[in-house]
Task: structure prediction
Amino acid sequence: MRTLHALAGVTAAALFAGAAAADEITIALGAEPTSMDPHYWSGAPNVAMGRNIFDHLVNPNAAYQMKPGLAASWKALDDTTWEFTLREGVKWHDGAPFTADDVIFTFKHAPDAGLKQFSPYIKGRVVKKIDDHKVLITTEGPDPLVPNNMAAFSVVSAKHGQGAKPEDYNTGRVTIGTGPFKFVEWISGDRIVLEANPDYWGGKAAWDKVTLKPIKSGPSRIAALISGDVDMVDYVPTTDVAQLRKNSKIEISQGPSARVIFIQLDVSRDVTPYVFDNAGKPMFPNPLRDWRVRQAINLALDRRGIVDRVMDNNAVAASQILAKGFFGFSDAIEIPKADPEAARQLLKKAGYGDGFKMTIHGTNDRYDNDSQILEAWAQMLTKIGIETQVDAMPKATFFSRAGGSNPEFSFSLSANGSRTGEASVPLKAFCHSRWPGTGFGVYSRSRYSNQRLDPIIEEALVTIDDAKRLKLFHQAMQICMRDAAHIPSHYQVNTWGLRKGLNYAPRVDEFTLPYGVTKG
Result:
């Protein structure tokens, strides 16, 4: 914990310094946000930072159950109209009242800001002000998931957000929220400093001051925790969990993650840039378009081996791109059993008995053991005759090259943690055909398209009856996984390390929220 210098020999001053320090906390973050603009990017580091400073209409708790946030309550008036009653008495950090005008502005700003990744949650939904504390959200068709989607993005100030750019948020000029902490400063690569919002509607935080220090290196984060330089760390490396449990000065908080690690394969282009024949020449047709090749890759992956050896048993083998326990998870989809011989036979039947060459791309600083996962996948694929090289890079480089209108890579590491606690986002954003500007297929680097699957997803998204919608979700997920354009590997397990005497309920969304850190 941070300490203040006490005056030598002055007992009262020393006691006062200790009391002051008890209200400060320093937390090491494994992943630094890329902007203070909460609508810049939908990645977990950015959304989590937004939760510290801003607020959502609906706030998911640690288990991702939907709870009132800036909306005190909500109800469906009919199949296409939802009424949200806003919380009264909420103030922005500058003292201005929070009103329906801020919600209306957010609906205009969030879909088109930054990397435009919040459009799936807002497009097709129109907000109308009834009074300062009541809005109606109407949809083009029946939409049972409006409250869940309201949990995915922060509400920003209409007064300060009008015309603001990401740099205005980064410097703090317009970083005015309603959340539990106020923005003080961000020195990229060094620290983010927050101070408690004494007027927070949910009650004042236990900490007057929070310092968030980005420490990308796992060993360096753990060393900082053990030495007492920081009070808490996230993304505890899997190799350190067992040892930290033996340390009497350290607490471990651990729980299952909503995040699934999976592979995206280019199934749309006739020639894909990082797949070559054994002579090193581009291949036509692209072998990844052949289901037998994709299924061979699926069978080549030893998921349980990855969990045991790469993740040190701090992960769970995955069957689909949705976490178990979330609405829409299908128990009928089995975890594929590794079968290299069957994989080789499939390649042979597809006409690739002699194999081919490929490069797999991914991050080396974003997910637990990401570069090691890439190496493990490459070894498994090479074993069945697909000679695979690894190109791992910093997340900023990877994400700038991996997405957009023309994804660069042929075969890449991906991840998803449903922001809504159910299957609509992975199905809509990854498994549906890409329809630019609609949110359909927005995260799909594979450009996967199945004309039989699309209408099932579309029907599920407008089905009010939970039982019918669940059946459609199951059907859609089964088709998407069978086509193997997105191949799941494993679900992460989220682990935090804390100084003895601190508590933190593990969150399935892997967010590190200082407001949730308590003493005692």
